[in-house]
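Exercise: predict the structure of this protein bound to adenosine monophosphate.
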Amino acid sequence: MHVVKTIAEFRRLKRHLCRQDAAEKLRRPSVGFVPTMGNLHEGHMALIRRMQESDDIGVVSIFVNPTQFGPAEDLESYPRTLEDDVQKCEEEGVHLVFAPDSDEMYAPDRCTSVSVSGITQRYCGASRPGHFDGVALVVAKLFNIVEPDRAYFGLKDYQQYRVIERMVRDLDFPLEVVPCPTVREWNGLAMSSRNSYLSPQERTAAATIYAGLCAAAVAFNGGVTDVSELVRKVKAELDEAVQVEYLEVADSRTLEPLRTARRGDVVLVAAKVGGTRLIDNIILGSELNNAD
Ligand code: AMP
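Solution:
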């Protein structure tokens, strides 16, 4: 496995690996890509394993992207564990880890932005102004550097997945976006690098977010379609330490909020537990967490 810090070196090595693979298999190899901010946990590893099953060449990027953090957010304290991450990638047989510095990714006088409108207006887009511009910019850049055939994204970050899917369609990136189910702790808490900020008590409280989502899914399966009733079902499960930021039922493609829920709609939630902001979601009436 190669760990690469510069774009030029990444491109050179990728070309070399693809040529080698093509010579062995007598066809053009497929390139898979999992973009991450590192501090890899089982959620990331599920994406990486899926890529390793499907693609000839596996690429993981590890980059804590400053443009997607707000000024009052946790850019400085975000957990950075490059050595461990590299080892985990190696164990899965990943071919290339791209781990650039900020200076390598962003010229000081950069003046190009990527902005996805509409579906970024609500939810995390509203509570984290500029966040999705930062995500779209870095993912577009990474797609141009890596040139993958398939890119794997977790449904845990549901709005992000839909934003990337839209950007890929609108800008004609020649790749497939592959959504992957949310991986959870034993108690239902969606795995996240930010879970490391939680105390043991806060972790227990945070698990009630998924309990609430499940209660809504069960109620929906039992015939409840009124969104305010579904929202009540979620709230009834939440620990008092869970401070809801948003809790809505939305059309899974447009992310428009709804008053009456249908099969396939998504319940989206963001909440603070202590100082830690967490997000989660569930799809109504389908296999839990699966994309349509
Ligand atoms: P991050 O490092 O948080 O930027 O996440 C990198 C990728 O891993 C994104 O596509 C996330 O949606 C995905 N991811 C993070 N946590 C999970 C999880 N618990 N289950 C599935 N995918 C996840």
